[in-house]
Amino acid sequence: MIGLADFGIILLTAVGAAAAVAVLAGIALRLARHKSMLLRLLIVVGATVASVAAATIAIAAEMYISDHDLLVLFWVMGVTAAVSLAGAAVIGVGITRTSDRLRSTARAVGDGQIVVPEDHDGLEFAALARELADTSQRLARSREEVATLDESRRRLVAWISHDLRTPLAALRAMAESLEDGVAEDPARYYRQIRLQTETLGSMVEDLFVLSKIQTGTLSLHMGPVSLFDLVSDAVADLHPVAASRSITLKESRTGNLTLFGDARELSRVIDNLLMNAIQHSPANSEILISARETSDEHVALSVEDAGGGIPEEDLGKIFDAGWRGTPSRTPSTTAGMSAGAGLGLAIVAGIVEAHAGGVSVRNVPGGCRFDVTLPRYGARVA
Q1: How far, in whole angstroms, is CA 355 from its chain's centroid?
Q2: Contact present, 321 and 183 (Cβ < 8 Å)
Q3: Beta 248-253 vs 286-293: how paired, if at all?
Q4: 25 with 47: CB under 8 angstroms?
Q5: pLDDT tens digits, residue range 230-245?
Q6: In the β-sheet with 248-253, what is the strand arrangement from edge to edge?
Q7: How far apart are CA 155 and CA 134, in angstroms?
Q8: 340: pLDDT confidence band, cut at 50, 70 and 90?
Q9: Angle 15-18-19 (CA atoms, 0-180°, nearest 5)?
Q10: Residue 252 phi, psi (nearest 5)
Q11: Distance of CA 321 to CAs 150, 213, 275, Å?
């Protein structure tokens, strides 16, 4: 039986040998910190084997075993170390290959490719491969969104440039005629200048509102608002415009129509929807504006026109800034109405979303219908 003193000697010898090997292994790992993972793995395994071997040999020497037994011990330790290092090398080569494949996958993700998760040994490597595949999908969607935004921005700039040139050219021509004294009816020219100025002011206002929406700086003054009052005021304001084109505005409303929102911005929503419907509806047609409460603590507003509908492939683009669609839906500039810059529906979507609501469009027989849903006053909004 080992005495307490012998046990203490054995313990101190083993700790000393292991500590010495650990110090050397730490130095080796630090020197190899920029080397391959295979080399670092071999250092760790070699240090483990060397620590056991050093402690065993030191203890064996203290126990004064025979030279023959000590030689046998050396052979056993040598063979064990060789087998351990060979196994570590095999594992290390596999890890290195997996690392190379993951590096190639990461490079592909950086180049904009969509990758699929590969089957790798090890839970961590498999999770990393799945994350890289998910990242490639998210990056692809982000690139598509950026491309869509860039296309929308280019289209918007093109339309704005075109629409600004028209009133500016008219203003320049009328101003030159008045300045040269060749205007046959100066009073009519002054009225036209005022109308063109109002058109420019409306375009600038739309751009300003859209910029606030897109930058998230739109300030809302929330409170209880009657949708009934908003619709009635909008219909009264735009009735002369509709009448000048022989278009009838028909209202329909039911239920509790009190909602929580900004009265000014919601009025802009209704005005834009009605003006869009008037611009695209033929003469002697009818526009139906309906307001109602829904069963899910919301109020709904619908504007249905007889403008011939929208191609199905364009329904998803109609709320993009600057979009105007096909010639059948191209706004008219008659009756004193400007074609605008295609911002009205984009502004509608932005204001509705800022109110935690939703807006959609669908074709109906003879035209299209816009539906807006907004939280009812007192309803819980997620």
Answers
A1: 19
A2: no
A3: parallel
A4: yes
A5: 999 999 999 998 998 8
A6: 248-253, 286-293, 298-304, 367-375, 358-364
A7: 32
A8: very low
A9: 80
A10: -150, 130
A11: 11, 11, 16
d(CA 51, CA 15): 9
Rounded Cα distance, 337 and 204, in Å: 16
Encoding tokens for residue 27?
């130095």
Per-residue confidence at 144, pLDDT binned at 50, 70, 90?
confident
Residue 288: pLDDT band by 50, 70, 90 thresholds?
very high
Chain centroid to Cα 184, Å, comes to 57
Rounded CA separation 189/335 (Å):
16
Q: Are 58 and 74 in contact (CB under 8 A)?
A: no
Please check whether residue 245 is in contact with residue 283, taking contact to mean a CB–CB distance below 8 angstroms: yes
254 membership: H or E segment, kind and range: none
Higher model confidence: residue 134 or residue 58?
134
Radius of gyration of the chain (CA): 39
CA gap 112, 136 in Å, rounded: 7
**Does the pLDDT at position 326 exceed 70?**
no
What is the distance between the alpha carbons of residues 129 and 36, in angstroms, rounded to a whole number? 20
Burial class (CB in 10 A: 0-12, 13-18, 19+), 147: exposed
Q: Which residues pair with 359 in a beta bridge?
A: 372
Specify whether the backbone of 278 is left (phi greater than 0), alpha (psi in -120 to 50) or beta.
alpha
Question: pTM score, two decimals?
Answer: 0.58
Q: Is the pLDDT confidence value at 170 over 80?
A: yes
Q: Are 345 and 275 in contact (CB under 8 A)?
A: no
- Work out the end-to-end distance of the chain between its first and last CA atoms, rounded to an integer number of angstroms: 75
DSSP alpha helix (H) spans, the chain:
4-31, 37-62, 67-110, 123-180, 186-214, 227-244, 263-280, 344-354
Average pLDDT of the residues in 131-145 = 86
Mean pLDDT across 47-62: 75
Q: Which amino acid is at 68?
A: H
DSSP state letter for 255:
S
Angle at 244 between CA 240 and CA 249, to 5 degrees: 60
Residue 339 pLDDT exceeds 60: no
pLDDT of residue 158: 75
pLDDT digits (tens, 9 = 90+) for 59-75: 776 665 666 776 777 77
3-state secondary structure of 121: coil
Determine the Cα–Cα distance for residues 63 and 69; give it in Å rounded to an integer: 11
